[in-house]
Amino acid sequence: MFFGASADIPLEGNEKILQDEPDVQCRNQPQIFRGMEYPPGTKYDLEYADLDALDISRLDTLEGKQELAAKVSSFVSKNAFFYVKGHGLTGDRIKRQYSIARELFNLPLEEKLHYLANTRAGDFRGYKPRSTGELGARDNDERYNIPKLTPEHGRLRPQLIHDHLEEIKDFSLHIHDQILVPLLQLFAYIPEIDEDYFVSRHRYEAKGLEYLSYMQYLPRTEAEDAAVNNICPRGHADYNALTFLFHQPVSDLQVQTPDGWKYVKSFEDTIIVNVADALEFWSRGYLKSTVHRVIRPPPDQADKPRLSLIYFARPEADIELAPVQSPLLQRLGLQSSTEDVPRGVTAEEWARARIAKDHRFRTGVVQKGEGEIIAGVQEKFYD
Ligand SMILES: O=C(O)CCC(=O)C(=O)O
Ligand SMILES: [Fe+2]
User: Which GO terms fall under molecular function for this chain's record (predicted)?
Assistant: First the structure.
């Protein structure tokens, strides 16, 4: 059965969502994985951030947990990315995801538009094209976001995705169960709260907008990039809980550090992870939502399309982003601070507000920003 062909899908957002996951026959097509190789690294000498690495295979023992918790405590205030090693995903499994992404983006635009995400309404599930013409300056990536594979998100998908749905689900579940869960337990050590406090708010089966994201940036001319100071997307913090960026060797990701913007080096056996808004709000700003941006790659990497594979782990839809009761925050006097926390706002409302704002900027409805995101919290700009 081919789900991509119906002509009556509105272009302004794919709202035609199936309530139940269709009984999909998985027909793996190994030939699509032919020749998936990473592009070479840059020869340019760039200034990279010095980031810590956590070997999460060590979390099996109490000793390992204590060691890693101490390490996390020492770097959380640095507002930085960190690396995760020992995550249990083979290079081959990651490359297969990149292959699916590549095949997907190679589909005709007309077909991809059948699965358009309704970003205007704050819904990022499905396809987002890159903008063209003048708006291309602020939006140079196309994306396809695959939400949790639960009945809530049963929806129209390209045949290619149906063909690999089991593999995509296994991959997503591995990230959720084997990487996210132990890290959330580890992060609960910091505010000295129950080990399962964060985990119990990220149940895979529960309602929520967590997703695996395929992205492609297309090369632009020097002049096009120069018009946006070589930055696109501009500096931002992510609006989920933890973000997992899989290896890709093009040097274009930068993190904001106390010493300015630094490149983030990617290694084949590690995942780059950043703390995002939910953990910042829950911890009253003790954990920092990492500020990062993407800039034009160095000359030896700037002329080719670039794929990104990212998993955005997000709290369940109805979870409030209210500060946790924490002995650490009490001691530090942060428990009752009134800093920028969206009061009474759920994870889904926060994500939808950020996505809808971004939609308005990308599509030229507004030129820079609009001030408030939701519940009095203001937009921040970093470039
Ligand atoms: O493509 C990347 O490396 C990062 C993209 C990003 O920051 C995002 O999608 O939030
Ligand atoms: Fe980001």
Answer: metal ion binding; oxidoreductase activity
Provide the domain count of the chain.
Answer: 1
Residues with CB under 6 A from ligand 1: 215, 233, 238, 245, 253, 292, 294, 308, 310
Asked, for residue 288, whether it belongs to a domain, the answer is yes
Ligand 1 centroid distance, CA of 293 (Å)? 7
240 is a domain residue: yes
Query: What's the pLDDT at 34?
Result: 56
Enclosing domain of residue 163: 17-115+128-338
Q: How far is the CA of 106 from the centre of ligand 1 (A)?
A: 20
120's torsion region: left (phi>0), alpha (psi -120 to 50) or beta? Answer: alpha
Tell me the pLDDT tens digit for each residue of 89-107: 999 999 999 999 999 999 9
Distance 294 CA to ligand 1 centre (A): 7
3-state secondary structure of 355: helix
Q: Is residue 41 part of a domain?
A: yes
Q: Tell me the C-alpha distance between 36 and 305, whole Å.
A: 14
Ligand 2 is an ion; its neighbours by CB within 5 Å are 238
CA of 303 from ligand 2 middle (Å) equals: 22
State the CATH number of the domain containing residue 171.
2.60.120.330
The question of ipTM being above 0.95 is answered as yes
Tokens found for residue 347: 């994870």
Residue nearest to atom 7 of ligand 1 (CA): 293
Residue 301, classed as helix, strand or coil, is: coil
What pLDDT digit, counting tens, does each position of 200-246 carry? 999 999 999 999 999 999 999 999 999 889 998 889 999 999 999 99
